[in-house]
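Budget justification, computational time. The allocation requested in the original proposal was used primarily to generate structure tokens for proteins on the priority list. As evidence of use, we reproduce two of the resulting records. The first is shown immediately below.
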Amino acid sequence: MERFRVSIGDEVLHTIGVSEPGVLTVSVYSVVRKPEGELPEHKCNLTLTGLDSSNHHALDWGGFCLEAGDRISIEVLPEDSFDPPESKTQIRLRDLDPAPKRAPETDEEELRNIADELGWKLIEEAPPVGAAGPPSSVPPFVSALPSPGIDCSSTLGMERFLVRVRGETHTIGVPGPGVLSVIIAAVVRHVQGAEPDHECMMELGGLWADRDTANWPKYDLVPGDKIEIEVLPEGSFDIPVRLRSWNQISEEHLAGKRVWARRTAWDLGWTLIENEPEPHSISN
């Protein structure tokens, strides 16, 4: 699993890492909240954290306050030794959710749950002869709902981040108040009977107006990559590559459920009735 060497200016803060399976995260973020009738809450921080999944330990190498002019460097390094965390906290699973919802054990159980959620009628027997074939398995993730607009001329009191990686540069921001983040993470999941699931990536994102989201290009990272982040004062920023409202996100999630339910019902030989017909009047 990769390690990250993190610096501010010329000072190396830490070389961080975790044993597999686990999660390693570098987060650079700016948050401005403006509760009604109160003064704005504002912070801009760098955090270095990890999760040792085998031992259920949350790892922390500390948090650092940032301001305009600070320059952060993150180098992606191959597997090797790393600095011990400043704190290690045992996670008790019951603390994460004192009454966790049991996950469905079978497709049949999940299909019953989704049909109930969507208000569809599920008949656990084959559809009538001549019924249509299986539906497309590709969910319509391009929502018909309009995307939110965004004014890229100013971040309205929030910092911007200038991000450099592989010769490319992105200036990201949101029209505050809101949240702006650069997340660099390495994740290794061990799945019984399968090859480990491994990912190392960087995501650039923002949230504003409580419900609208913005994303800039996402990068898959490899050892040797170096990410440089400069904290800039308020100003203009690059147009995001993707804008979505909360309603769009909800619709896309439901669209995926609908397609999965249709496909699974067909595979099981069951019948889904999505919209029951209105009863017809009989006239003499």
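The second record produced under the same allocation is shown here.
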Amino acid sequence: MILNVAEAIKAPGEQFPFKMEGRLEELSRGFDRFKVLSPLFIEGTYMALGESIFVEGRLKIRLETTCHRCLDPFTFEKKVKFREEFVKHLDPDSDGFLYSGDEIDLTDMAEQDLILSLPMRLLCREDCLGLCPTCSHNLNRGSCGCQPPEEEAQPNPFAQLKQMFSKEVD
């Protein structure tokens, strides 16, 4: 997803709008649990200041993954706002992206911003009931009939205090 920034370099400080669509075949960096279902849509503005190009906007994509509670596949649309800097020379204090010439590649930036915006645990719905701990039945589809595991009777460490306070009240 290449953005030609020649106009911005010739007119520093002026903002230029852009829209583009491209494919992410799969999300890399160990995030193979996502299947990409739609093209990646990016829109925003870019501006040159000195040797830096500032890109701001939003991206949108549709993904499929597995619910962390019930293990069923589900799809969702993710929208992410971004504001990034592209630089010609990366120094240790910079967290921008590199570019050269009159073009910047937005693919790595888009993928990184998308991955960083995802929650640690994705759920098919907020009230997902997950799996039965005994038989692994998906509880979103109804009860499994298993008896809940009996809790071992743990001695209450505050039982003695409760007895002391109940004697004082009498």
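A brief technical remark on that second record: The longest helix spans residues 107-117.
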